[in-house]
Give the backbone structure.
Amino acid sequence: MDFKVRIIGDPVLRKKATKVEKIDDEFKELLDNMTNVMYKEDGVGLAAPQVGISKRFFIMDDGKKLRKVINPEIIEFIGEDVVYEEGCLSIPGIFINVKRPEGIKVRYIDEEGNEIEEELHDYTARIFQHEYDHLEGILFVDKVSTAAKAKFKGKLNELMKEGRKIAKELGEVVIE
Ligand SMILES: [Zn+2]
């Protein structure tokens, strides 16, 4: 499957994604393809809705470890809120400070079907939360003030137009 990264304005980015029911070879191949796309685009994370698939999984690489995260849950938020500049492959060229909890406790299934529970901090927790939001139809620009977005207003409108156009061409990618 050849993936195109979806851009803000595409309705698939605004849907609440549904659970992955089956991890088979085809699905693992999909994860590998997405990993290639993420690295090619210089991203640190890529969620399924970003390639048009409304399912609950994402991949992320915090520079230490590549994680393939399926049906994730955030069990607990830990520590203080911290501010960090975020970007998103679906909102190219826009970087804004976003406030999020410093740490999280999470549970998910890996590509071998193992249930993983771990505590994440700092940059790793940041990426996980950003990607998790994608599965809920939330984008980082939703979490910042109108004032913070003001200087990107023109750019955002342009992107929305592009996103809607791509959506019309490609629609949603349905996997089993
Ligand atoms: Zn993103």
User: Anything to note?
Assistant: Strands lie at 45-47, 57-61, 66-86, 96-109, 115-121. Residues 88, 90, 130, 134 surround zinc ion (CB under 6 Å).
